[in-house]
Specification:
Elements: H1 2-20, E1 30-35, E2 38-47, H2 49-58, E3 62-63, H3 69-77, E4 86-97, E5 100-103, E6 117-120, E7 129-135, E8 140-145, E9 150-155
Parallel strand pairs: 4-9, 6-8
Antiparallel strand pairs: 1-2, 2-9, 3-9, 4-5, 4-7, 7-8
């Protein structure tokens, strides 16, 4: 009898969470702050590039872009080994040209003018690659296959 009651309570809680949006993953977004009119948020759930893009859109945002030295410096200043560290999907993907990337939200070229070096993960082809931000003491733009799962960086 007690087992049935516990199961019913868990089912009701799950239903209530689904109806209110709690549990959808959006509550995991952590606000890093704002710079240049952008608000950056991250989520520590690993996703592919497409799943990351969908997640940001469903959360009312878009995958983040880093287009100015000020934005790069801001994100670098937020590095913290125990919280904001690791690989985060960005809104950059290849333009179907070898090692040429565009920002998904604007279609403009992702360039190296922002003061971040580019790093290519070994073993990936020239195409179907996406850009991630490696938050570390020395951050970089990381080029990796779009199907590789990593954390998510969104912006408003």
């Amino acid at each position: 009898m007690r087992v049935i009651i516990v199961i019913l309570v868990i089912a009701e809680l799950s239903l209530a969470m689904a109806e209110t949006g709690t549990g959808s993953g959006t509550f995991n977004l952590i606000n890093l702050g704002s710079v240049d009119g952008k608000n950056y948020f991250y989520d520590k759930t690993r996703r592919t590039w497409q799943a990351s893009r969908d997640f940001c859109i469903e959360s009312g945002m878009e995958l983040a872009t880093i287009e100015t030295p000020k934005q790069a410096e801001f994100l670098k200043s937020k590095y913290n080994y125990s919280t904001f560290s690791g690989f985060y999907k960005l809104g950059g993907r290849d333009a179907l040209l070898a090692r040429q990337f565009t920002w998904d939200s604007s279609g403009t070229a992702a360039t190296d003018i922002v003061g971040l070096n580019w790093r290519v993960d070994p073993g990936y082809s020239e195409y179907l690659t996406c850009v991630s931000y490696y938050s570390n003491i020395i951050p970089v733009f990381n080029i990796v296959g779009c199907e590789v799962e990593s954390f998510v960086l969104c912006q408003t």
